[in-house]
What we know:
Elements: E1 3-10, E2 15-20, H1 26-40, E3 48-50, E4 54-61, E5 64-71, H2 76-93, H3 99-104, H4 106-116, E6 117-118, E7 121-122, H5 127-135, H6 139-177, E8 185-186, E9 189-190, H7 233-244, H8 258-261, E10 274-286, E11 292-305, E12 313-319, E13 326-329, H9 335-341, E14 343-344, E15 359-368, E16 376-384, E17 389-397, E18 404-412, E19 421-425, E20 428-432, E21 437-445, E22 451-458, E23 468-474, E24 481-488, E25 498-510
Parallel strand pairs: 10-25
Antiparallel strand pairs: 1-2, 1-5, 3-4, 4-5, 6-7, 8-9, 10-11, 11-15, 12-14, 12-24, 13-15, 16-17, 17-22, 18-21, 18-23, 19-22, 20-21, 23-25
Helix pairs in contact: 2-4, 4-5
Amino acid sequence: MVLLAAAVCTKAGKAIVSRQFVEMTRTRVEGLLAAFPKLMNTGKQHTFVETESVRYVYQPLEKLYMVLITTKNSNILEDLETLRLFSRVIPEYCRVLEESEISEHCFDLIFAFDEIVALGYRESVNLAQIRTFTEMDSHEEKVFRAVRETQEREAKAEMRRKAKELQQARRDAERAGKKTPGFGGFGSSGISSGNSSSVIQDTLIEPEKPKPAPAPVRPSGPSKALKLGARGKEVDDFVDKLKSEGENIILPSTGKRSSEVSKALPAPINTESVHLRVEEKITLTCGRDGGLQNMEILGMVTLRVTDDKGGRIRIVLNNNDKKGVQLQTHPNVDKKLFTSEAIIGLKNPDKSFPLNSDVGVLKWRLQTTDEALIPLTINCWPSESGTGCDVNIEYELQDDALELNDVIITIPIPSGVGAPVIGDLDGEYRHDSRRNILEWCLPVVDMKNKSGSLEFSIAGQPNDFFPVSVSFVSKTNYCDIQVSKVNHVDGDTPVRFSSETSFVVDKYEIL
C-alpha cells in the first residue's frame, strides 16, 4: 500500500486541508482533487473510483469529503480501514464539519495525519494513541510538575512561619521597650485602666542616631574633577543643545516625581493645640471599554492634642455623605453617642486623649462598582492610521463639588519611536523619553474646568497606550465628612481647633 495524499475537500473538489506523503507538487494535488467530483458519477463503486494512474478512496462528511489518493496496486481493504481512522480523527478536533472549522484546526489535523501515515505507509496506531502523541502527554513531566508544586508550597509555608517568628520577635521587643502604659489601640498608644482622673502621656523612645563621620580633609588647590551639583557654563550649553533637539529637560530643582507630589498636601503652617486631619485615599480600576471594575475609598479622622488642658474634649462631626459609606469608631470611643448625635467622645468622660501623638478616632470605607460614583472619568481612544496611531484622550469631572489639584494623567508610549506629535491640548504635557511616558498636566480640575482633551500621534498599536494612570490631590474630601466644632466635656464650652482635609490617589488606573 502506498498512500500518496490525504485531503479534506468540498464537493466541488476544492482542497481545504491536504497532506502529501510522497513528493508531489501543489499543482498535481489540486488537479487530482479537482478531477475527483467528475469521476464519481462514472463509476459504480460508492467508496472508491479509479483512473489510469491513481485510486480515490473517499467518505462523505456532510457537505465535505474525506479523500485518500493511493496507487492502483494498493490493498483496498487496508485503504478502507485507513479511511475510517482518518474520518474518526476529524471530529476529535472540529466541533462541526464545516469549511471554516476545518480551516481553523488545519494544523491540528495535519499533525494527526502524520501520526497515521509515515512515508506513504500506515502506522499501527489507534485513536487513543494519536490523541496521546499529538498532545505530547508525558508522565515524567507530570511528576516533575507535582514535585515542583510541592516544593513551592513548602517554601511558602516556611516563609509564612519565618514571618510569624519575626512579627512575634518585633512585638516582644516593642513590649520590652515600653516604659509606661498608654492609650491602647489608638495608633501606638492606648487608655490604661488606672486612675480615671489622671492624664497619661506616652513616652516616645527614639533610637540614637549615629554621629556623622567627619569628612576627610582634602588638599587645597585647583582640581579638574567633575563637581556634582554644580552647573557651569558647559552644563548650560549642553542643556540648551538638548532643548534645541526637542528633548524635554527637567532640572533637579523642579524634577520632583508626580507620584511623590500626589501623595500629600503641604501641612498647614499654624496649628492649634487641638488639630484634626481628615484624610481620604482612593483606589480605582476601570476598563478601557468602560465599566468600573472596583473603587474603594478609605478615610480617617486623626486627632492630635498638644496641650494637657485640651485632652478632655468631644468632636462634633457634620456627616453629609449620601454615597453609603461604612463608618467605624475606635473601640475606646462611645459608639452610642456617635450613632445618636455624631459626636466622638471617650467612653469614660473623665479620661483624656493622649498628648503629642496622632490618634485615629474614626475611619470609613466605601467600596462600589457603580460608574456614577467615579470622581474623574478618563476615556482613551487610540485608532490605527497609516503611519501609526492617533490617540484621543479626554477627562470629565463627575462630582462638581470636588476641586482636584495637580492632576497628572500618565499615558505609556512605545519605546524607540521618538516623541509624539501633539495636536489639540488642554493644559500642559511632558514627554519622558527615558520612562517612555507622556504626562498630561492639569493644575486645577473643578466645576469651571470640568472637561478637556488631548490629541497626539505616534507609531504603535492601540494596546501600547494602556494602562493609563491618574494622580491628583484635593483639599476637599470625597465622602463629605467634616469636623464642625470641638467642645469641652465639662460645660460644652467651645475649644479652638485647626483642621486640614486631603483627598489623594493610592491607585487610579484605566486598564
